[in-house]
Structures are given as structure tokens and as C-alpha cells.
From TrEMBL:
The keyword Nucleotide-binding belongs to this UniProt entry's keyword annotation: no
InterPro entries linked: A/G_AdeGlyc_MutY, DNA_glycosylase, Endouclease-III_FeS-bd_BS, HhH-GPD_domain, HhH_base_excis_C, HhH_motif, MIG/MutY, MutY_C
CDD domains: ENDO3c, NUDIX_DNA_Glycosylase_C-MutY
Enzyme class label: hydrolase
Residues covered by the HhH-GPD domain: 45-196
Catalysed reactions listed for this entry: Hydrolyzes free adenine bases from 7,8-dihydro-8-oxoguanine:adenine mismatched double-stranded DNA, leaving an apurinic site
Protein name from the UniProt record: Adenine DNA glycosylase
PROSITE patterns according to UniProt: ENDONUCLEASE_III_1
Pfam families (alphabetical): HHH, HhH-GPD
Cofactor: [4Fe-4S] cluster
Domain of life of the native organism: Bacteria
Family: Belongs to the Nth/MutY family.
EC numbers for this chain: 3.2.2.31
Length: 458
């Protein structure tokens, strides 16, 4: 396209789009004022998440944290709880970290300066552009996936939008056509067109306000564009989780733990789980009857842990599964699930052994409860959940377990110092009942499992 043609097409695009937006924009809760904090929260929630899903979360969040100061001062647990179900929890943590920066550095006022706002935790070029243009009407582009799609089609841009260079090019183009005094409306208008008309799979060209000058449509390429190289599919992982049921004074409760302070799903609560060893992962879905993994002398068998712990004077702990016990109990696989998860395929043992080694937790898996899935951007978890009986925690927790894993066969029980009291859980572990679901934040997959479990117990 010649430069003159591009300029004419750009002017047409901006003018027609604004007219269309004025008449057709949706009444969304974050559009009711220009408070930069409210816009910030909405933009962060809308990343990777549909508008319909976001609305109730946004309303609850704004009710609970109506100002940047409220958010900055809230306990993180409450923020995560309010975010629970939206996924991508690092967004919530970064949002709160950014709010704390705004309070500490800018007296609680979201800055209207590009360098200052871009230095806040979790604010990238898109969010900075959205806040600056919508709240402060600054002529900054806000280029997200919708905008890249619309502009690639309208201007017939063939650049691979997965590459940063394409984003930079589109940002420059968008910045050059923002109409004076209407930066916020223009940016929202392009996003709105992408959400409502120029949709990914079936663009509604016949209803489009910029159809007359759309180069992509004129070339019959609207469904091919934007060009986007395929991202690597998420890496599959089989996780084995224990739904450890309490007894005695903990009857009706389930054992949960808090995740580490950093990394994936940091500080959220979950059922204890381990990565399945390759041989157990490969066997998922196969019928029972594979050779007994538990008998493999090369690994630290949990039965051995128990025997050694008993030798060290541990009273009253229920036995960790041995192959025969597990095979017998595996007959009672949860309704609607497959035969996966019998002792013979090694997963009972892999779970009890893994928890003992990683967390110093001894449990006895009893039967498969459910099979779940949880997809992150880079990992796809398949989660096999096993009902399990609580044994005990090794005193000294993980360190003792690691030591035990290395040398217990030679020195039975010497590395333990005996079990912990069942009431004296290590830090970061809790027995919870249904009433605790209102205060602890769980990733979706564990939220589903626990809600289902407590509902069935009621
Ligand atoms: S005419 Fe079609 S392809 Fe072009 S911007 Fe409109 S909806 Fe998208």
C-alpha cells in the first residue's frame, strides 16, 4: 500500500471506528468512570480472560478493595481468595505489589507518566498504554491480541504477531493514528471491534464499520490473518495427589499444604502431590496388572520407611500401602473413573514414596478418587487424585526424609527421630473442613476437587 493510501485508510479507520464505538460500546462496569485504579484492575483481569467471566470478579474485587490503598494494605491471602478461579495468579500478586509501589512512591495516586507507570510491578506496555489513554487520555497505544488481529487484517500486515517486532510495528502504527483528544476511546474502539466483529475465527465483515477500506477483506485474506507461528504446546505432566482424610478429632477434614513463596502458584493452598515417575505416567489408563513397582529394590519403598520407622519406635501409625493391600483396596475405584490407579501400576507406591521423600509425609493411598486436568501456559497437569489415610510426618520433615531416602536401608530409623504428632503439623500444612474453603485460596483444580469432596461428605 502506498503511503498516501495508508494515511487515507488510517484516517478512515479512526473516524469510522469512533462513530461505531460511540453508538455500540458495551456498558461495562470499568467504563463507568475514568479512575486509573479501576481501569488498571480491569485490564489485568481481562488478560487471558473473557469479559463475561471477568465482570463478577471485578465487581467483587472493587467492593472488597475499592482503592489502591485498600489493595496495598490487604493481606495477600485475601487478594488471592478474591482472585480464586480467574487463574494466572501471578497477575493478582503483581497487581498488589504494584499497588504497594503506588502507595509508597506516589502517595496512592497512579502516575500519569509513561516511565513511572511502566516501572510498576506487572505493568507492561499494553497495560501502561491502556491506563494512560483511558484514564488520562494520553496518546499512547494499547496493543493486545484483539488490536493486533484487527490491524493486521485492516492494513494487510503479514508480520508474525508472535514476534516482538510485529507488536512494535503495530504499536507505532496505532500511535500514529490515535485521533487527538480521543486516545482512550480509540484504543477501546479497536479492542471492541476485535471482540465483537473482527473476531478470530469468523470476522463479521458485512457488519463492520471499516469494511469499505479493509485491505485484508479486499484481498480475501481476513480469515488467514493475522500470521502467527504456533506456540509450543504445554508440556504434559502426570501429578499424583493425595486426598488425605483426617481421623479422630480431624474426622471430616482433609490435609492441605501451602505452596512455596515463589514460582508457580506461589503461596496458594493445594493437596499434597508429586510428579509421577515416568514409568507410572506411561501406565496411566492401562489396565491393572503391571509388574509390582513397589517391589523394585532400587527405589526407597514406603513400606520400608514404615518398617524402619516402626523399628525406631513409632506407635499406632497406619501402614503405608504394600502391594497386596493396595491391590485389594483398589477394587473400590471411585464411580465414573477408570481402573487407573491400582497398586500394580506403581502409582500408589509412587505417591506414598514421593510424598515421603519430598515432604516427609507418610500416607496410605486407598483408592482412586478422580482424574483431573489443569492447563497452565507451559504445562498441562493431569492430576490423579487418591483417597489416602494419614500416617504421620517424619520429625524434621523434608530434610529428615531426604536423609532417610539416602541412608535408611543401612541405618533403619536412625535419620528420623520418630514421627511428628498428628496434631503438630509442620509449618504450611493444615487440616481443613468445608468452612475453611471461604478463606484459603486454591488453584482451580484443587478447588474443584475439594468442593466436590466436601459436597459428597455433606
Ligand atoms: S472488514 Fe472484516 S477483516 Fe476487515 S476489519 Fe472489518 S471485520 Fe475485520
Amino acid at each position: 500500500m502506498s503511503r498516501e493510501k495508508t494515511e487515507a485508510a488510517a484516517a478512515f479507520f479512526a473516524a469510522e471506528l469512533l462513530n461505531w464505538y460511540d453508538a455500540n460500546k458495551r456498558d461495562l462496569p470499568w467504563r463507568r468512570d475514568r479512575d486509573p485504579y479501576r481501569i488498571w484492575v480491569s485490564e489485568v483481569m481481562l488478560q487471558q480472560t473473557r469479559v463475561d467471566t471477568v465482570i463478577p470478579y471485578y465487581e467483587r474485587f472493587m467492593e472488597r478493595f475499592p482503592t489502591v490503598r485498600h489493595l496495598a494494605e490487604a493481606p495477600e491471602e485475601e487478594v488471592l481468595k478474591c482472585w480464586e478461579g480467574l487463574g494466572y495468579y501471578s497477575r493478582a500478586r503483581n497487581l498488589q505489589a504494584g499497588a504497594r509501589q503506588v502507595v509508597e512512591l506516589y502517595g496512592g495516586v497512579v502516575p500519569d507518566d509513561k516511565a513511572a507507570i511502566s516501572s510498576l510491578k506487572g505493568i507492561g506496555p499494553y497495560t501502561a498504554g491502556a491506563i494512560l489513554s483511558i484514564a488520562y487520555n494520553k496518546p499512547e497505544p494499547a496493543v493486545d491480541g484483539n488490536v493486533m488481529r484487527v490491524m493486521s487484517r485492516y492494513f494487510l500486515l503479514e508480520d508474525d504477531i508472535a514476534k516482538p517486532s510485529a507488536r512494535t510495528k503495530i504499536e507505532r502504527l496505532a500511535a500514529s493514528i490515535i485521533p487527538e483528544g480521543r486516545a482512550g476511546d480509540f484504543n477501546q474502539a479497536v479492542m471492541e471491534l476485535g471482540a465483537l466483529v473482527c473476531t478470530p475465527k469468523s470476522p463479521g465483515c458485512l457488519l463492520c464499520p471499516v469494511l469499505a477500506q479493509c485491505a485484508g477483506r479486499a484481498a480475501g485474506r481476513e480469515r488467514e490473518l493475522p500470521a502467527k507461528s504456533k506456540a509450543k504446546p504445554p508440556r504434559p505432566e502426570l501429578r499424583l495427589a493425595a486426598l488425605v482424610e483426617g481421623r479422630g478429632e480431624h474426622a471430616g477434614k482433609v490435609l492441605v499444604r501451602r505452596r512455596p513463596d515463589s514460582g508457580l502458584l506461589a503461596r496458594m493452598w493445594e493437596l499434597p502431590h508429586v510428579l509421577a515417575p515416568d514409568e507410572a505416567a506411561r501406565s496411566r489408563g492401562r489396565a491393572a496388572g503391571a509388574a509390582a513397582f513397589a517391589a523394585d529394590a532400587r527405589v526407597l519403598a514406603s513400606a520400608t520407611i514404615l518398617a524402619d520407622a516402626k523399628a525406631a519406635g513409632v506407635p499406632e501409625a497406619p501402614a503405608v500401602a504394600d502391594a497386596d493391600d493396595s491391590a485389594a483396596s483398589a477394587g473400590a475405584v471411585a464411580a465414573g473413573t477408570s481402573m487407573a490407579g491400582t497398586a500394580g501400576d506403581g502409582r500408589f507406591d509412587a505417591l506414598s514414596r514421593g510424598l515421603a521423600e519430598e515432604a516427609g509425609l507418610l500416607v496410605r493411598p486407598v483408592r482412586l478418587w478422580s482424574e483431573e486436568e489443569h492447563v497452565f501456559s507451559h504445562i498441562r497437569w493431569k492430576v490423579d487424585v487418591y483417597l489416602a489415610e494419614f500416617g504421620f510426618f517424619l520429625a524434621g520433615g523434608r530434610e529428615a526424609a531426604a536423609g532417610a531416602a539416602g541412608g535408611m536401608a543401612a541405618e533403619p530409623g536412625a535419620s528420623y527421630g520418630g514421627p511428628s504428632d498428628a496434631d503438630d503439623l509442620p509449618e504450611g500444612w493444615l487440616w481443613i473442613g468445608p468452612e475453611d474453603m471461604a478463606s484459603l485460596a486454591f488453584p482451580n483444580v484443587f478447588l474443584r476437587i475439594l468442593n466436590d469432596y466436601f459436597a459428597r461428605q455433606a
